[in-house]
Amino acid sequence: MTKPRPYVLSIAATDPSAGAGVLADIKTLEANKVYGLGVVSGITYQNDNTFTGVDWVPVENITRQAEIVLTKFPVKVTKIGLIQSLPVLETIIDFLLGLKPDLKIIWDPILKASAGFTFHDRLEQEALLPILKKLFLLTPNVTEACSLGEMDSPEESALQLSQYCHVLLKGGHRVKKLGRDTLYLQSGEKYSYRPKEQNISAKHGSGCVLSAALAANLAQNYKLPRACLRAKQYTTKFLTSNANLLGYHQT
């Protein structure tokens, strides 16, 4: 009999293709040797290359889902993905921290679907900054970092945002230094993670996979820089698993 696994909660939208969102998170968490719990924040209508819309789950239903698992299971880390708005996000975060003040919260700020559907055009800084201060980690790609930090340079934006929480700048959308991720700690330290595989294939939901793998490693008590490295290694295996947009999860 195997020893008990840590618990991680994913709060994200459904994806019928199971390549992204809460379904991808659960698969990633399982492959990374933690038990994944799932709360649905929205119902999307998409596959691996087409996105036609989303129906949002009311925030009171999101918190009700979260409460029933958080009051039973010893969750160490929560990863939040696609959310309707910043006010909804803050309500969820406040609810989570009210139940578990020491909970590590990761926000993967999905502003636009890979198929082109835009969820959030502009995020108000006055609403954003109080939220960042409650997070353990923010995981934007380069485009999202520029939007959140309101700067043209993703690196400068990530550095600015790291005043409020740790930031992992994902490099999958870079024009130069493709695939290089950079961790900006609140202390000012910086770590870079270069891709070791060149024969990779773009995957639907790769950002979800990276942040979920990171959550899994944090729940196993790896320090953040090491957790980022292990998550990068897992995501690379996912990206090289096949030549299709829907990758395979491997232990």
UniProtKB/TrEMBL annotation:
Q: What pathway is this protein a component of?
A: Cofactor biosynthesis; thiamine diphosphate biosynthesis
Q: Which InterPro entries match?
A: HMP/HMP-P_kinase_dom (IPR004399), PM/HMP-P_kinase-1 (IPR013749), Ribokinase-like (IPR029056)
GO cellular component terms given for this protein: cytosol
In short, the EC number is 2.7.1.49
Q: Which residues form the Pyridoxamine kinase/Phosphomethylpyrimidine kinase domain?
A: 15-245
Q: Which Gene3D superfamilies match?
A: 3.40.1190.20
Q: Keyword set for this entry?
A: Kinase, Transferase
What Gene Ontology molecular function terms does this protein carry?
hydroxymethylpyrimidine kinase activity; phosphomethylpyrimidine kinase activity
Q: Name one GO biological process term.
A: thiamine biosynthetic process
Pfam families noted in UniProt: Phos_pyr_kin (PF08543)
**Mind telling me which PANTHER family this protein's record contains?**
HYDROXYMETHYLPYRIMIDINE_PHOSPHOMETHYLPYRIMIDINE KINASE THI20-RELATED (PTHR20858:SF17), PHOSPHOMETHYLPYRIMIDINE KINASE (PTHR20858)
Name-wise, this protein is: hydroxymethylpyrimidine kinase
